[in-house]
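In line with agreed milestones, the collection of sequences with tokenised folds has grown. A representative record is reproduced below.
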Amino acid sequence: MKGQCWIDGEEIIFYIAINRRRKRTALAIRDDLSVEIRSPSPLSRETAVSLLKAEACWIRKARMRKEEILEKTPVQEYEDGATIPFQGCLLTIRHTRTGNGYFAYIAGNELYLSLPQGRDAVDERERIVQAVIRCYSSAILPFAEEVAGRTAEAIGVPIPRIRFGYQKRRFGSCTQKNGIILNIRLALAPPVYLEYTIVHEVCHLREAHHQKQFWELVESVLPEYRTFHANLQKEGMRYAL
């Protein structure tokens, strides 16, 4: 459900996201500065607006913080000779012109982008991003499967199936059929953050909450998880394609 209201003379766009696994209602600020109300049950518009007005001070400060983060987030360029992060290092982008499709592959410390003749990297940004996502997904999948396999074995759960997405908020999530979805942003960061996220999500297959038992399980697999968790929460969304 989408809605809008005015708080202190400012228009607020809001969305209500229902997740029946949640225990309580919470607010989050989206990249477009709208407010997402995450609730375990449906809310009426009147209830949603009342909640937003009650949290007006928090919303104002959180939107300002989000704006500051977005302003500091660099825009990834795909011109020939530009650089792009991959697992904490920088690859140099090289353009090739072969065939009519869009694809990418890594060779050494270079990322090769194949573009159709006559097409420009600026105009074809979305197709290039999808090609890079496919390339990065294939490149990190073996490592992701290895981490998921040993974590699952260590805590006694079935090995999950892994797939990748490009989410705006979450770094990882579980599916109802023993799978985990990883944010491809993690492919840009040092591998320890990918490892932590996989351990986190595999542990959720046994403990579907964030209570003490869950964090103790994570720590049993990855004792230094607190550092990775804190850094990822603070810096992770700055990795963008």
About this structure: The longest helix spans residues 125-155. The helical segments are 45-54, 56-72, 125-155, 191-204, 212-221, 225-235.
